[in-house]
Amino acid sequence: MDTSRELAPPLTDLLYTMAEEGADAEATNLQKNVWAGLLRDGADVTQRLTEQIEVNRGEIDADDWAALGDAFGIIVRRDSRSNRVSARAFADEEHLLTEWEATKAELVTTGAVEAPEMGDSTEGPSSGPMPPGDDK
Questions:
Q1: How far is 11 from 29, CA to CA, in rounded Å?
Q2: 88 assigned to some structural domain
C-alpha cells in the first residue's frame, strides 16, 4: 500500500514557497539545478497555509488537502532547469524518512574530490634524498 500522495498545483507552488522560507531540512545539487526541502507535520503545514496565505480552497484538490493534513511530512522539489515544482505528502513516517534519505543521496554531488591531508606523513614534495649540492 502506497502511503504517499503526489500533490497537484497550485498546492505545490504554495508548499515550495513555504519550504523555501523555512524547510526543516534541505538538499541541493547545483550541477543539476535541483533543490529539495522537507516539511514535517502536515497538520502544522496545513494550519500555516490557512493562516498565512490567501488561498481559494476551491482551487485545491480536496483529496490533496486531506492528504496534506494527515501527512507526517512533505518533500518538495524544484527543478530549475525544467521550471518544475513537485510535492509529495507522506502518511507514514518511516516511508517519509526513507524517501528523504534517498532524495538527499540522489542530490549529493559526487564529483568533488577532497585533497589529502598533509598531517604527519613523511611522504610529499620535501621527502627523499636531496640532489647533490643542495644539502646546505
A1: 24
A2: yes
Q: Which three cell numbers stand for residue 94?
A: 518511516
Q: State the total domains in the chain.
A: 1
Question: What is the span of the domain harbouring residue 71?
Answer: 4-107
Residue 136 lies in a domain: no
Q: Could you give the angle at the alpha carbon of 8 between the alpha carbons of 6 and 14, nearest 5°?
A: 110
Domain membership of residue 127 (yes or no) is no
Q: Kindly report the number of other CB atoms within 10 A of residue 132's CB atom.
A: 6
In a domain, 78, yes or no: yes
Tell me: the pLDDT tens digits for 84-119?
Answer: 999 999 999 999 999 999 999 998 754 343 334 444
What digits encode the pLDDT tens for the residues 4-37? Answer: 999 999 899 999 999 999 899 999 998 889 999 9
